[in-house]
């Protein structure tokens, strides 16, 4: 029972981060059909910049703020300098551009902040907590609470604000949104900024638990992308569900099978789900028109 | 001009000239080694281009097949007492069989689903290689026995340069033959419209599987060559970054261009070597160059150059 | 025996009933037209008969044999092929190569021989190319063989699809809006081609909005409305059927029927 609880807890913690990465993927994809493989680098930047700044003597809050601002600026530059100039290129070409960008960002991060592991102090003073016999890290609770807050804020933003409605309108029908006076370049740039913001927050939240280094972005991008596709690339709740599922599957695999083979377990189940629901768990069924 | 560009055998011919010229122009082992690595990578990318550029099916997991060829050549002599040549050939055939078995279910996926499925394949193979230490030596990798063909000991750059170069020429000729045949037309038809290919009698699933297996065999052959050439193989051979690198080579050179595949491989093999003088900035510069090239030549280097040349000639 | 029998065919997408209990028979060699307002289910029916969609209920027979649920390439092998309303051209190929793909079933296709590029593969290519040129001549596209299909105008592509379908040597050819977007001259040419192929014994099923074209060409017409059969008969019977005029043309005067895009 305690083991099961521990597995559930660690699965939800990691899954929350995958979900945040997956939200970044879907947000950008649904408004622009761009799959941004540099998404994982946002998480890396959030964690690395905060940790480096704290190590340099900055207080945690200003350090985190600095990391967030820097990551958001990176996201906007990524769109403005690399993705927007290639907007009429084929999807695979844009993917390669974002992969080039992630190599570039990773390369700069390793030069500027070193290749060693970095960490951040946890938010709460008590590092662990006894929960039904299972000892859990309080930072895990912070990750989950933070992720829920991020998702709710995003949801409110998309529902309640003019810009948020612009994003939803563009996702639903780009041409119609454009005719209604919404500038798609502003909207897509905004989704890059938001996904960078979400990624950076995720990176800051998770670093006290998993540590971070310049090269954590690749694996996060892979998992986040898989989570986004698993959830259904265009459904708003898809990435959350997909991310949590992959996190839980990994935790179950690590707990009951072997920690080396947890990813194998997660991917095999993921492929099984895609066979049963090719449109993703929440994606709508598309009838091919000929 | 148009005639030369349109000739399907021109790329293989151009490469044959290069293969002969390089040892005459730059006879240093360093450059021959680099050229050999270009040929080996190009072999994977030519196959991947048949799959992606012609048949229109993405794979983010081809390093898995590359690694299978490499590790089969290493494991046969080390653990099973097989001759290296037999292990290599068995490994290539076995990889083809695995590609058939895996391709059958996952090629039903399209687009991003296929991307995730092939990515999953790559992740799984790389984890198995890293963790089955008794067989593969784990993260440290394993030694590979030398290749003997009869009494010829194939070793060193002087031998492997020619083996890899000539194999690549043959692979390019084969690809060109395939493309101007009923099989090639079926593959290209599937890329543009699966439903139209179907109503014209093309068994779409069968042809997708066929090209998937062919591309896996190209990758496995290249993987075996790399392992035998290096004399050592590590899990990095089959990592997901490797798979993504192969795709980047194909896209950079130009999807649907055989010559582009070779050029894309050349750029991404040579560039990191050329950038080592920038030391720590190597990766940042590599990423920046990849971005700039793709933004400027968004259809890939060769197709973009071709249309520019044709416009000039017209 | 009918070339095509559609027996009580229904298809639903989720809750939407796209076709409901549709039945008809097409005798060999007939030119059989399906008409109806937009959304009537004509293209859906084509998709069901050609194996692109699987129907929810009912049965389809081809020369007496049940083919319900067969895949498009299996049907093509039996001798049934089609064209598409929204073009499905192989845009990265030349016009001649498009038609050569249609020869697929009649070519020797062994991947290993193809890989080796043996002389017989090249000989066969030359043969297929020659037959492709002949079919391009037939549909009035002489001399366009080497043109990249992506650069050809719409009306030409419509005819290219017909040539490509004919290359499979079908016994039944289904044409989905063969003259949509074509000018009067092109329309007349296509009508001529269809008469010619029907005259050679091929069965032609077509969907078309151009009423003048349908009325002069079809032997029999089947009218669909909202997924259901409304009427069936000869062109003159259909022209004078009050239900058809009511549903199909709404309030339009009979004089406006010739190019109704309802």
UniProtKB/TrEMBL annotation, chain A:
One of its GO terms (cellular component) is plasma membrane. GO terms for molecular function: transmembrane transporter activity. It is a multi-pass membrane protein. It comes from Chelatococcus reniformis. GO terms for biological process: amino acid transport. This is Branched-chain amino acid ABC transporter permease. The keyword Cell membrane applies. CDD domains: TM_PBP1_LivH_like. It is found in: Cell membrane.
TrEMBL record, chain B:
It comes from the Bacteria. Keywords: Cell membrane, Membrane, Transmembrane, Transmembrane helix. The keyword Glycosyltransferase does not apply. GO terms for molecular function: branched-chain amino acid transmembrane transporter activity. It is found in: Cell membrane. GO terms for cellular component: plasma membrane. It is a multi-pass membrane protein. The chain crosses the membrane at residues 9-26, 32-51, 82-102, 114-138, 158-179, 209-229, 249-271, 283-301. InterPro entries: ABC_transp_permease, LivM-like. This is ABC transporter permease.
Automatic annotation (TrEMBL), chain C:
InterPro entries: AAA+_ATPase, ABC_AA/LPS_Transport, ABC_transporter-like_ATP-bd, BCA_ABC_TP_C, P-loop_NTPase. GO terms for molecular function: ATP binding; ATP hydrolysis activity. GO terms for cellular component: plasma membrane. Residues 4-251 form the ABC transporter domain. The keyword Zinc does not apply. Gene3D superfamilies: P-loop containing nucleotide triphosphate hydrolases. SUPFAM superfamilies: P-loop containing nucleoside triphosphate hydrolases. Keywords: ATP-binding, Nucleotide-binding, Transport. CDD domains: ABC_Mj1267_LivG_branched. This is ABC transporter ATP-binding protein. It comes from Chelatococcus reniformis. The gene is livG.
């Amino acid at each position: 029972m305690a083991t099961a609880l521990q597995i559930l807890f660690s699965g939800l913690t990691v899954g929350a981060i995958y979900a945040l990465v997956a939200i970044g993927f879907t947000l950008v994809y649904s408004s622009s059909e761009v799959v941004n493989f540099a998404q994982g680098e946002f998480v890396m930047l959030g964690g690395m910049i905060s940790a480096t700044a704290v190590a340099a003597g900055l207080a945690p809050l200003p350090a985190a703020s600095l990391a967030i601002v820097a990551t958001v600026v990176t996201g906007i530059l990524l769109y403005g300098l690399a993705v927007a100039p290639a907007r009429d290129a084929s999807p695979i070409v844009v993917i390669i551009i974002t992969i080039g960008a992630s190599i570039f960002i990773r390369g700069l991060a390793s030069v500027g902040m070193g290749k060693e592991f970095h960490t951040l102090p946890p938010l709460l003073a008590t590092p662990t907590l006894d929960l039904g016999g299972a000892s859990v890290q309080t930072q895990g609770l912070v990750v989950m609470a933070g992720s829920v807050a991020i998702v709710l804020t995003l949801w409110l933003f998309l529902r309640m604000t003019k810009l948020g409605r612009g994003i939803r309108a563009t996702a639903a029908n780009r041409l119609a949104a454009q005719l209604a006076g919404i500038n798609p370049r502003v909207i897509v740039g905004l989704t890059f900024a938001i996904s960078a913001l979400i990624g950076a927050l995720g990176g800051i939240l998770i670093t006290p638990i998993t540590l971070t280094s310049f090269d954590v972005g690749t694996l996060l991008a892979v998992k986040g992308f898989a989570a986004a596709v698993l959830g259904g690339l265009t459904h708003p709740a898809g990435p959350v569900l997909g991310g949590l599922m992959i996190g839980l599957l990994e935790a179950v695999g690590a707990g009951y099978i072997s920690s080396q083979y947890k990813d194998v377990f997660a991917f095999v189940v993921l492929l099984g789900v895609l066979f049963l629901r090719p449109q993703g768990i929440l994606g709508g069924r598309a009838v091919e028109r000929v | 001009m148009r005639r030369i560009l349109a000739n399907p055998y021109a790329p293989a011919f151009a490469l044959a000239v290069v293969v002969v010229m390089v040892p005459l122009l730059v006879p240093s082992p360093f450059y021959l080694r680099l050229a050999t690595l270009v040929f080996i990578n190009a072999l994977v990318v030519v196959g991947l281009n048949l799959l992606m550029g012609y048949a229109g099916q993405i794979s983010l997991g081809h390093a898995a097949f590359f690694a299978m060829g490499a590790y089969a050549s290493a494991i046969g002599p080390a653990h099973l007492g097989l001759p290296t040549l037999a292990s290599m050939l068995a490994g290539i055939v076995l990889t083809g069989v695995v590609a058939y078995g895996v391709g059958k279910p996952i090629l039903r996926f399209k687009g991003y689903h296929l991307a995730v499925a092939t990515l999953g394949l790559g992740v799984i193979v790389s984890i198995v290689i890293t963790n089955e230490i008794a067989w593969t030596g784990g993260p440290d990798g394993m030694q590979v026995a030398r290749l003997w063909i009869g009494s010829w000991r194939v070793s060193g750059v002087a031998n492997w340069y020619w083996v890899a170069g000539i194999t690549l020429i043959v692979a390019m000729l084969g690809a060109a033959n395939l493309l101007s045949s009923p099989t090639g037309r079926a593959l290209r038809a599937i890329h543009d419209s699966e439903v139209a290919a179907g109503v014209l009698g093309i068994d779409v699933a069968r042809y997708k599987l066929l090209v998937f297996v062919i591309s896996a065999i190209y990758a496995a052959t290249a993987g075996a060559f790399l392992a035998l050439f290096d004399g050592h193989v590590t899990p990095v051979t089959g990592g997901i970054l490797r798979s993504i690198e192969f795709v980047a080579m194909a896209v950079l050179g130009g999807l649907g261009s055989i010559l582009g595949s070779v050029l894309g491989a050349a750029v991404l093999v040579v560039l990191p070597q050329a950038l080592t003088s920038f030391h720590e900035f190597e990766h940042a510069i590599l990423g920046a160059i990849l971005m700039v090239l793709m933004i400027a030549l968004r259809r890939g280097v060769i197709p973009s150059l071709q249309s520019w040349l044709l416009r000039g000639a017209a | 025996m009918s070339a095509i029998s559609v027996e009580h065919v229904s298809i639903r997408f989720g809750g939407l009933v796209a076709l409901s209990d549709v039945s008809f028979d097409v005798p060999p060699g007939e030119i059989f037209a399906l008409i109806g307002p937009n959304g009537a289910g004509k293209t859906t029916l084509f998709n069901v008969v050609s194996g692109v969609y699987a129907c929810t209920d009912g049965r389809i027979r081809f020369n007496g044999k049940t083919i319900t649920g067969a895949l498009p390439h299996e049907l093509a092998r039996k001798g049934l092929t089609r064209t598409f309303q929204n073009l499905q051209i192989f845009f990265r190929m030349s016009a001649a190569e498009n038609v050569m793909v249609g020869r697929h079933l009649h070519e020797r296709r062994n991947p290993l021989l193809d890989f080796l590029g043996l002389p017989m593969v090249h000989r066969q290519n030359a043969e297929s190319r020659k037959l492709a040129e002949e079919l391009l001549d037939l549909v009035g596209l002489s001399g366009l063989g080497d043109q990249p299909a992506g650069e050809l105008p719409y009306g030409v592509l419509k005819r290219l699809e017909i040539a490509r379908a004919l290359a499979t040597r079908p016994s039944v050819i289904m044409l989905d809006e063969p003259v949509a977007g074509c000018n009067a001259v092109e329309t007349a040419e296509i009508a001529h081609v269809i008469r010619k192929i029907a005259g050679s014994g091929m069965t032609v099923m077509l969907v078309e909005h151009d009423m003048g074209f349908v009325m002069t060409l079809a032997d029999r017409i089947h009218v669909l409305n909202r997924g259901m059969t409304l009427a069936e008969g000869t062109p003159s019977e259909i022209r004078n059927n009050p239900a058809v005029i009511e549903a199909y043309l709404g309030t339009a005067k009979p004089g406006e029927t010739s190019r109704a895009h309802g």
